[in-house]
Amino acid sequence: MIETYIIEQLAAVAKYGTLSRVAEELHISQPALSRSMQKLEDELGVKLFDRSKNRIALNELGELAARHAEVVLTAHNEMIRAVQEADRRSHTFSYGSIAPAPMWEMIPILSQLYMGMTVSADLQESDDVLVRGLDDGTYSLIILTHPLDDNAAYFSKPFIKENLSIVVPKNHRLAERASITLKDLAGEKILIHNKIGFWYGVCKEKIPNATYLEQSELSAMQEIVNATELPSFITDVSNKKFPAPKGKIAVPITDKEVNVQFYCVCKSERAKEFAAIFSALKM
Amino acid sequence: MIETYIIEQLAAVAKYGTLSRVAEELHISQPALSRSMQKLEDELGVKLFDRSKNRIALNELGELAARHAEVVLTAHNEMIRAVQEADRRSHTFSYGSIAPAPMWEMIPILSQLYMGMTVSADLQESDDVLVRGLDDGTYSLIILTHPLDDNAAYFSKPFIKENLSIVVPKNHRLAERASITLKDLAGEKILIHNKIGFWYGVCKEKIPNATYLEQSELSAMQEIVNATELPSFITDVSNKKFPAPKGKIAVPITDKEVNVQFYCVCKSERAKEFAAIFSALKM
DNA sequence: GTCGATTACGTATTACGTAACAATT
DNA sequence: AATTGTTACGTAATACGTAATCGAC
Description:
Two copies of one chain form a homodimer. With 283 residues, chain A is an alpha/beta fold. Chain A has helices at 4-16, 19-26, 30-44, 60-90, 100-113, 127-135, 198-206, 218-227, 236-241, 275-280, and strands spanning 49-52, 55-58, 92-97, 118-123, 141-144, 154-169, 189-193, 211-215, 232-235, 248-252, 259-267. Chain A is built from ten helices and eleven strands. In chain A, the strands form three sheets. In chain A, strands 3, 4, 5, 6, 9, 10 and 11 form a seven-stranded mixed sheet that branches. The first copy, chain A, has a two-stranded antiparallel sheet with strand order 1-2. A two-stranded parallel ribbon of chain A has the order 7-8. In chain A, a hairpin with a 2-residue loop joins β1 (49-52) and β2 (55-58). Chain A is elongated. Chain A starts with a helix and ends with a helix. Chain A binds chain B through residues 1-5, 7-8, 44-48, 60-61, 64-65, 68-69, 71-72, 74-76, 78-80, 82-84, 86-87, 90, and chain B through 1-5, 7-8, 44-48, 60-61, 64-65, 68-69, 71-72, 74-76, 78-80, 82-84, 86-87, 90.
């Protein structure tokens, strides 16, 4: 039986060529390495090296052994990775969301129901990534702007609604309007946060010829909103946390794409397990 | 890094269920095993067992780890096997033969040319097995009753000839004949050695309704030949080593299938390497 | 009472680093 | 002289077995 540390050393010798170099890389002494390789040859009953007085090199058999050593180490590392990953999953409730608002809303619900577990939330811009994540077990739950059709495979339930408005200075050309459409924003220069899930794509796609000032830091975002006259987005949900600044007006946008009903979705086989979550959902 | 001995122990725990049983199987003490499994959990940072006071069992994570342990051990064992096999091959000249006579004839030739190497001879009944063995490197050389057509891939050279006779008592109905064919042996009860390569198949196939008394021990074979009146086979080559017994007569068999020219065959890329062998061949 | 697992403890193994040496470059 | 690998030797880490303990069947 060949111990792992020797297999690791063999692979390193194949990689770095000389014992002294390997000793440096692995933070052990040359003599220790020299002895390990002798022990390895001894255990296999085979010569793996061409040795001259102060030169050592893997021979053909040694190269073969080193290639196999790589295979063993790969399996070894995969074992550790897989076990630790499985453990992490068993202590973590992971869910993904297409938008920040329902993601935030979900946190207190899950934290209470899964006390002692890590709750991991993941914001995504695309439905596909979320559904794939649900399928492969990355997510236990996902939040979309629509239910999933396949009722045999998935269980969907409505969650919160969210409606978009544009925040403009009082003297802005749109400030007097009771409501607008995305088209009305054509040509505007707009401040936009770029970590807002599907909103980002919808806004960029549906507003003709707009230019954007992007910002990923939330606090910096707030600063700029307050300090400039630029239009920015707000929703009825986000309004509670981050009220529109004084001196500006929020004008609702009427397009159906930005007035959404969220849905909370899980695999149907886990619907029972998550019953408590679903009954805790505000709608 | 998890040492191999611990991975082996984990796999054994999954296999045998209890620590005491495993300790017995692996010839170590229970405490040693108990500590190993604790160390394993410690290194992975993960609980692998459900423990009650005097019962221990792998949990789901432990089962996963054990399955991976099997994979690691398989790779580990394959490494050892492959290296030792490659080493053995490098110290062994292996060849296969379709018949005993040329196999024996080859031994002194190879022993002299490959001094210090092990010469390994293998008797086979079928061409296919030999050619496959030549292709995959199991054999460096094979001996057949015909050359191999593909001159780009193989190099073939005639070796010895061998001719079959039947040995019968002087009062046997065929004893007076100068020669016979296999058909003439129809219905006979014949002594036959069953480790004679292709001869075995040819004789069994070409003689109608014969019954056979098989024997695989050579010395026992000789005994029976001497002690009974049963016909048996002999060839001009084997006759030198094991002369036909007194009071019996060897009658040549004329069928072309049993008067063969052997050929020594190697891969063409190795023909140069084996030039000394081929020039030492008697024909 | 037996069996299975764990803990405690002393021992034996062994892998290690330092030092010294030999041989190349 | 600097670099590389090996051998010698004492040390430190560690894996081991024995004995003791604790519960469960």
